[in-house]
Design goal:
The complex is a heterotetramer, with two copies of chain A (about 350 residues) and two copies of chain B (about 425 residues). Chain A is about 40% helix and about 20% strand. Chain A is α/β, with parallel strands linked by helices. In chain A, the strands form three sheets. Chain A has a seven-stranded mixed beta sheet, sandwiched between helices. In chain A, strands 9-11-10-13-14 form a five-stranded mixed beta sheet, with helices on both faces. In chain A, helix 3 links the parallel strand 2 and strand 3. Chain A is globular, with a radius of gyration of 20 Å. Chain B is α/β, with parallel strands linked by helices. Chain B is about 40% helix and about 10% strand. In chain B, the strands form two sheets. Chain B has a five-stranded parallel beta sheet, with helices on both faces. In chain B, strands 4-5 form a two-stranded antiparallel ribbon. In chain B, helix 7 links the parallel strand 2 and strand 3. The longest helix of chain B is centred in the first third of the chain and has 26 residues. Classes of the chains: A alpha/beta (about 350), B alpha/beta (about 425). At the C-D interface, helix 3, helix 9, helix 12 and helix 13 of C face helix 5, helix 13 and helix 14 of D. Bound molecules: thiamine diphosphate (TPP) (2 copies) and magnesium ion (MG) (2 copies). One thiamine diphosphate sits at the interface of chains B and A.
Chain lengths: ~350, ~425, ~350, ~425
């Protein structure tokens, strides 16, 4: 290590300490998911000046959801980049920046506007490491605010995560709490692999406390959110609060639900789900995404394969219908709801 | 040494490039952006901001009192229901509204240039084109109230559905125009039967691959399509210079067809140039690109807060170029219209606004079965089963309070404001 | 009906009769899948002059697989269109042509080159009917030669069908025999819905006899290809011949496999699969596509849900690994093989 | 009335448009296509097809005997191993080969214009660029034999992996160039340290959205990237006029940067123009587009049969413009090289070809574990399990004959020829 490297090492340590102090300072009071994401970006940019933020309206405006608020002001327009209006361009130039040693964090403005970038994601982002046998890495994060329930027009409420779960080479994550939002995004940015980071836009303003004692090794693994004995309910992202409420409601009816948050949707970490199902014998999977050929199909198929003799009932799903996302006045009927979940748990227990 | 002409910002302040750039663009930054796109080859103009009429050798137009009065009425009515849309959203009656304020001339000029047999592909802001195509403004409301993804018969009026994914419609329109040509309805020297297509998109959209591919295909297949770009200087918060160093109409030459830049706040120029372009297309000389140089006077949508990214004084400055005012001035000064005329237009506008409002407020949520309708042209067992099971499930609750349909349960109340705030981001 | 309409009706009848005669004439001798597809396009174009063929190199060259061979010569360059090299363009202008009353049959040159068109497919093709509440129909076919086993370079051997199965509004089909290739493509072209038509490129040169007594109502439904009693094996497209051979091999070992060809991958027609599983109690699903969040997950999840008590073993899958498609010298290891299928059947029966 | 300039084929034979068009383009059709793209602003040329040297005011080049002899050697060696690639495929040693015949000057000129610190993004035909970047030709073989998706270290030589999805690399290169600028390695007036990027693509690729977006981004961010389009007149079977009505370099002006058209069969012109363009980029005046006007003399790939779509006599005519011959003529006529030189180059070429062949034949199939390597940067349980189960499964057979790995079983034999025939379609 040269002296200059050592010096910058020290500075990096100093920055890391500052960031930790910052977090500790606000860790006491609850913050929103939106704020947590903003803080995570800020911390990552402070620690590593190769981290860039790029996308439509992420600079001066701070993003249509204000997730990048204030970053351009503090880090400048070469690190917080308002791009031309073209998503293939955002991801495709992001790939080039990653090859150059940067760590781009790309924002797709909405779920439904990710598809122009799909080719670059499948053909370059996902396959670059494999193609080059690791000569290139692809330290890139693509942030996608996803899901419905915000009363928006078409294309603004979709849940396309299953499409990305099908693509080898991508990691797909979705946080459901402010603490996870913060630490998972930090983790995603540090990973040398590309991460498609699905943010539950409907939950941007829900609050929680930042947990500072986090193990980076497991931050993106599946986690038991609530212990229970009668039926396991697995979900992720925007449906998690609904599931948690269903579990509370079920308790008053004398049913004990074990709730698991997947956090990483691909590659799946089904260990905790298997353990739980071996205990409860019942599994319900909850997601807004359409049902066919989806992440919920995969969880159902895998758990059935691996815990066949433990299951007292088939894995049941509460999922979006196999229709396009409906006009928003109908969306509450479309989305997983407390009653749909309880109803499905009942069906499972009735087997 | 490179000639200056392709150097961006030769007089740029290098400090603007550094990491210290302030989050808000400076006034000079804005003005430089404007100047840069405003300069270059002159705008086609027939009616000056001061209300002076002129003529243009390439784009002749027979300006009669009736014509100008009609255009005036169109613009006033369109602006009126547009403003009502904003108000309805503020009052919680719409989830979002996409204002066109400032773009009335660009839209009415283009809309009135179309013949009945022509086809229009709008993006999402083309309420003025809808008006000219004979779509009742109330038909636009379903999308913005969240009761519908469409709302009008796109075939009857030859006005396609709104397209929200930026740029998609450029290709769809080109394909439609290819069909007009394959149908033998181009180049027959029969202006009452020969057809053309016009597609609307913004300055931001020009960056999308789809718009490029639309132009490539249109050129390759001689498609009778007019690419009508309303350069309103902004793509949400991004100034047009983020998308291009040079005026956008110059793109056309790279594909081997004609690009024209017109004063988008001059309804006569927009009418004359668009009519010319559509006629070129219908007689087989398409495609053509038009850049209507205008300004988005309001927010991007009702969910947007432009104070975060642009200076009010620039917007103020653009008021001097108001598309309606110059027509009013000319009508008054020339004596073509009297107070009665203006009063009656105002009365019509108010009546339209009232009808628009009443319709919005009365729009009802469709039945749950609508979720499952028209996914395919015919029923299929998989979806029928999902529908049946869902209706059964709803039925189970029909005796009591109904199911808790809220996907967020009680705590959503706390976030409703937040959710509303973004409900409409487009 | 006006006289001119009647006249053209008669002409249409005449053309239909001619086409039927043509088919009958060659129905006796076996033809390849490639030839069957070519004949289907030709017949559709003869019967309905709104049918267009468009894509890269489909005209003068007749397509890189020669599926459109001779069509430009006979139908002209306005009906067999060599497009500029841009897939979003092919599909996006195809949408416009469909709105104008044409029935475009778009060719994607290879599976891996479909993704530039993904946005148009998801945002316009799949949703146009829903958005307009049926005011528009979308009578469009997108033909995609898919799957591996041809010794090709990257992007030429992929199986992306699951991605399309997840998108509501699309029909997804894949034929496995020349007769199906012919009749299913005819059917797909006639449907007012968009069809993503996956052609098993590795099987283009396999031969079979055209069955002329086909019921258009069921041509795209799942079909039992071979009856059996011990275990059900479900597959489609390029894996079907392998599965059929496995069934023959299994027979010599005293195992009776029932083989079902899905034909339509979305919306799924699982009736015959359910009936079969109720009989055999065992199900193996075979596909080249990667496993995660895929069509094989969906079949496993649905069948388990609907036939839970009939299953003596979990649904097992023989599928692609969750990796990018490997270099071609390794592909035979990657693909479902006779032995992999037999091995998996054994595992199922061992439960 | 529309000015003629943007009318396509003003003298087109209308009968060509009808449904009766013959499947094979006529000679006139071909020639018209050529003329159309060949006309327009003149090609930059420094060495005529007859071997005459000239100079160009904008693109100075110090042409020394050593320079020209070096370029000659490059071209001869590149052509030699390219031909060997074809032969190896014919003999079943490669699944496919993508010939560059005819494009040696376009590639060697551009490749030799690069400085060590510059970065190249090839498509799939750039074996000549690979050569100039110091990639050993044998490293290219894995892709074509099916043992690898890559094969060389893209970082070491600053030569990115081949990109097969048409157009993707235009965006990746632009992003890389943005990085060069963000790194502060542009515009320091330090030609030995300042960097630039060059991206290669074909005439067909210009239609793709990604190439457009690359140009939009490059212009917007002043990225130091040279868009180097080898217009070899064909995208598989489609003539360039399917992609564009006008010469391709004209696209650049629409984005506000410079586009230059160079004789792609003139290695000196390609060198001089590319060097100029790279220097423009490294000094902060990028991007620049270059259209190298050349001709694909061989099939698209070894799987392609050009007799189906183009006339041999056009290809014959292009032989007069051979990129190597004109250099040989000049070297001979000027006395810069003698027979010994030519003989030694030939000997080097034959030696290279032999080594190339030996390497190809010796390339072994990687172990099954390769299927699972480098999907992610670190192992994960899901994939490890799939790998373990698969290796166990293989193990089970290791005593006997090994598993029947054939996915098609016995009957595949019958189709192997067919499968081979397409094995390589690119
Ligand atoms: C593919 C896609 N990306 C992003 C968006 C979000 N979005 C909606 S409008 C808009 C800006 C459009 O700007 P412009 O094309 O200039 O049209 P204008 O809104 O000014 O009329 C953006 C980024 C979208 N609708 N589609
Ligand atoms: C997105 C995509 N579509 C289609 C193909 C199949 N394909 C391979 S090369 C080619 C033609 C390319 O032509 P051009 O860009 O002129 O390059 P050239 O091969 O002539 O060097 C096509 C269509 C592809 N590789 N990628
Ligand atoms: Mg705009
Ligand atoms: Mg080419």
């Amino acid at each position: 290590m040269t002296t200059s490297e050592k010096a910058s090492e020290q500075t990096a340590d100093q920055i890391r300490a500052d960031v930790a102090a910052e977090i500790a300072a606000i860790a006491a009071k609850p913050i929103t998911i939106a704020k947590a994401l903003n803080m995570a970006l800020r911390a990552a940019m402070e620690i590593d000046d190769k981290v860039l933020v790029m996308g439509e309206d992420v600079g001066t405006l701070g993003g249509v959801f204000r997730i990048t608020d204030g970053l351009k002001k503090d880090f400048g327009e070469h690190r917080v980049i308002d791009t031309p209006l073209a998503e293939a361009g955002i991801v495709g130039t992001g790939v080039g920046l990653a090859l150059r040693g940067y760590k781009p964090v790309c924002e797709m403005q909405f779920d439904g506007f990710t598809f122009p970038a799909f080719d670059q994601i499948i053909s370059q982002v996902a396959k670059m490491q494999y193609r080059s046998q690791g000569a290139w890495q692809m330290p890139m994060v693509i942030r996608i605010p996803f899901g419905g329930g915000i009363g928006a027009v078409e294309h603004h409420s979709e849940s396309p995560e299953s499409l990305f779960c099908h693509i080898a080479g991508l990691r797909v994550m979705s946080p459901s709490t402010p603490a996870d939002a913060y630490w998972m995004l930090r983790h995603a940015i540090e990973l040398p692999d590309p991460v498609i980071f699905f943010e539950p836009k409907r939950r941007y303003w829900e609050k929680g406390v930042l947990d500072t004692s986090v193990d980076p090794g497991t931050i993106a693994s599946s986690i038991v959110r609530r212990e229970g004995t009668d039926c396991t309910v697995v979900s992720y992202g925007p449906s998690m609060p609904t599931v948690m409420k269903a579990a509370t409601a079920a308790e008053t009816e004398g049913r004990s639900l074990e709730v698991i948050d997947l956090r990483t949707l691909s590659p799946l970490d089904l260990g905790p789900v298997l353990a739980s199902v071996r205990k409860t014998g019942h599994l319900v999977v909850v997601s807004e995404a359409p049902r066919e050929s989806s992440i919920t199909s995969e969880v159902a198929a895998r758990i059935t394969e691996e815990a066949f003799y433990s299951l007292a009932a088939p894995v049941l799903r509460v999922a979006g219908f196999d229709t396009p996302y409906p006009p928003s006045k109908l969306e509450e009927l479309y989305l997983p709801s407390l009653d749909k979940i309880l109803d499905t748990v009942d069906r499972s227990l009735a087997y | 040494m490179a000639p200056d002409r392709w150097i961006k910002n030769p007089d740029a302040d290098p400090s603007l490039d550094g990491p210290g750039t302030s989050g808000v663009p400076s006034a000079e930054h804005m003005v430089r952006g404007l100047r840069q796109t405003a300069q270059g080859e002159g705008l086609v103009e027939l009616l000056s901001p001061e209300g002076e009429l002129s003529s243009h050798p390439d784009y002749p137009l027979d300006v009669t009192p009736d014509l100008l009065k009609g255009l005036y009425r169109d613009m006033v009515l369109v602006r009126r229901f547009d403003r009502e849309g904003n108000a309805l959203q503020r009052q919680g009656q719409l989830g979002i509204w996409v204002p066109l304020l400032g773009q009335e001339a660009a839209q009415v000029g283009a809309g009135r240039a179309m013949k009945p047999q022509d086809m229009a592909f709008p993006s999402y802001r083309e309420h003025g084109i809808a008006w000219c195509r004979g779509i009742d403004p109330t038909e636009l409301l379903g999308i913005f109230r969240g009761t519908d993804h469409g709302g009008w018969d796109p075939k009857k009026n030859r006005f396609h559905n709104y397209t929200i994914v930026i740029g998609n419609q450029a290709l769809n329109a080109t394909g439609y125009a290819m069909g007009q040509r394959f149908d033998g309805l181009v180049g027959n020297n029969d202006p009452d039967r020969d057809e053309a297509t016009i597609v609307f998109f913004g300055d931001g959209a020009t960056s999308q691959g789809d718009v490029h591919e639309g132009m490539v295909y249109a050129a390759s297949f001689d498609a009778p399509v007019v690419f009508y770009c309303q350069n309103n200087q902004w793509a949400i918060s991004e100034p047009v210079e983020t998308q291009s160093r040079v005026p956008l109409h110059q793109r056309a030459a790279g594909y081997g067809f004609k690009g024209i830049r017109v004063d988008g706040n001059d309804v006569l120029a927009c009418l004359a140039v668009t009519r010319w372009a559509l006629d070129e297309c219908r007689s087989g000389n398409g495609p053509v690109m038009i850049e209507a140089f205008t300004y988005r006077m309001d927010a991007h949508t009702t969910s947007d807060d432009p104070t975060r990214y642009r200076l009010a004084d620039v917007t103020e400055a653009w008021k001097m170029f108001d598309p309606i005012e110059r027509v009013r001035v000319h009508l008054t000064r020339s004596g073509w219209a009297d107070d009665d005329f203006f009063a009656s237009v105002q009365a019509d506008a108010d009546e339209l606004a009232a009808r628009f409002r009443a319709h919005a407020v009365g729009l009802e949520t469709p039945p749950p079965t609508r979720i499952f309708d028209h996914v395919y042209s015919s029923p299929n067992p998989q979806l029928e089963r999902q529908e049946r099971e869902f209706l059964d499930y709803l039925e189970d609750f029909s005796d009591g309070d109904g199911p808790d349909a809220s996907s967020g349960g009680a705590s959503l109340a706390g976030t409703a404001a937040g959710a509303n705030a973004v409900g409409g981001v487009l």
